[in-house]
Amino acid sequence: MNKHLDKLLQRCPSLKQCEQQIIDVFNCWCELYQNDGILYLAGNGGSAADAEHIVGELMKGFILPRRLTENDIATISKENYEHGEALARGLQAGLRSFALTSHLSLTTAFANDEEPLNVFAQQLYVMARRNDVFLGISTSGNSENILRAVTIAKAKKIPTIALTGNSGGRLAKVCDYTITVPSDVTHEIQEYHIMVYHTLCIMIEDYFYGKK
Fold it and tell me: Cα(195)–Cα(160) distance, rounded to whole angstroms?
């Protein structure tokens, strides 16, 4: 774990203030995936793209191979003698994650019928279960739809993480874990965010797949 975080801090010393915050979130993710939970993510604008980006790094191999076990390959192969083995050997293991920004038909229908600011909260209310985690991304830390999703996450007793700018905003006051990067300028915050979550994704991948 530390080698990846050390490399980040060497490349970007200004993130030193986030070191313990990143470690805390990493430990939260370890517990999440050890308990077979799902990481739910949400954000707005560029932060919505970041939520999707994180899912892309978690649900398939990032920098390490994540080939299926021979037992899993055998199970899939038995289902189809023509392409089962080739299919299984072409798949990768993943860490379950879901961006709440992905349901276009649902989110537009809900926003048309109900309060649009509740759209992430609605999805968490329906889908989140024990052992899951919610990660809200907001450069200001004050995005109302993210704050409402945090309220639902807390009602469901699942941990909450905020990825924000330097002030932390209102999210820093209500989330269980917060990573506050050292800027108050939106595009700079987003640049820091990508470095932080890339490092977290590498750390968690190494933890679960590095020895394999």
Answer: 20
Contact indicator for 117, 146 with CB cutoff of 8 Å: no
The beta-strand segments (E) located in the chain are: 39-43, 97-99, 133-137, 160-164, 177-180
Ordered by start, the domain boundaries in the chain are 2-59+94-209, 67-93
Task: Name the pTM for this structure.
Answer: 0.94
List the beta strands (DSSP E) in 48-200: 97-99, 133-137, 160-164, 177-180
Q: What is the spatial distance between Cα 38 and Cα 32, in angstroms, rounded to a whole number?
A: 7
Q: Which residue has the tokens 């506050």?
A: 180
Angle between helix axes 119-127 and 104-113 (nearest 10 degrees) is 120
CATH number at 2-59+94-209: 3.40.50.10490
Distance CA 78, CA 84 (A): 7
pLDDT digits (tens, 9 = 90+) for 123-140: 999 999 999 999 999 999
Please tell me the predicted confidence (pLDDT) of residue 2: 84
**Distance between CA atoms of 196 and 124, rounded to whole angstroms?**
24
Question: Can you say whether the dihedral through the CA atoms of 138, 25, 189, 141 is positive or negative?
Answer: positive
Measuring CA to CA, which residue among 118, 186, 126, 182 is closest to residue 150? Answer: 118
Q: Is 99 helix (H, G, I), strand (E, B) or coil?
A: strand
DSSP β-bridge partners for residue 136: 42, 162
